[in-house]
Predict the 3D structure of the following.
Amino acid sequence: MKALIIDDERLARKELISLLEKHEDIEVVGEAANADEAEALIAEKKPDLLFLDINMPGRDGFQLLNALDHAPHVIFVTAYDEHAIHAFQVNALDYVLKPIDPARLEAALAKVPQTSSEDLPQRDMLHEQDQIFLKDGEKCWFVTLKDVRVFESEGNYIRVRFSDQKPLVLRSLNKLEEKLDPLVFFRASRKHIINLRWVDKIEPWFNGGLMVKLKPHDKTPATPPGAAPNVETIEVSRRQAARFKELLSL
């Protein structure tokens, strides 16, 4: 498993490298002192795991993650425990305080999935097992793409629907479409990209279009007695309807 250490303190990087030496399954492929260096190394080395400081000169750790298309697994390593709750809100693997307690580091490493990027197809596109990092105001999430039901354009932003969450992030729907696996994510209209794994029912709609009903998610509100079911729907434009039927073998 390839790891990258990102910390503006040289001695902190050196200490962590020393502690990781006994872990033969972890290869430290580089180190960076700031977000700019880290972003370049992530693009070059494609690490599976980041050991990431939060407070750094220039962009902080969260801003770095927000700039990545694909977010590797992350263990935050920092002296600022005020960020602990924030780190767990974003569902990072773990959070380790400086100075590093070796036992605490071992506990964090035990949570790292053993899948390596070398086990996955080498391609530029994002596949459904990849995770992305989303930031909306002070709230942040790591989200596996298979859990995203819909990407919805709102001006220069995208609304991302997963579970019962729908953060608004500054991204282009057109650019995102270029990176997503077209066999899983379908451009239903100018405004929507839907995850085909979440399609439940399809109905004819106006002007030759289609109305897609999505499967309920794990936090879909229960339907009160006598009320209509709470169903999430997306319209497929007439222009895209034929391609949609083709993908679903209809």
Notes: Residues 131-247 form a domain with the OB fold (Dihydrolipoamide Acetyltransferase, E2P) fold (CATH 2.40.50.1020). The mean pLDDT is 89. The CA atoms of residues 128 and 146 lie 5 Å apart. The chain has two domains: 2-119, 131-247.
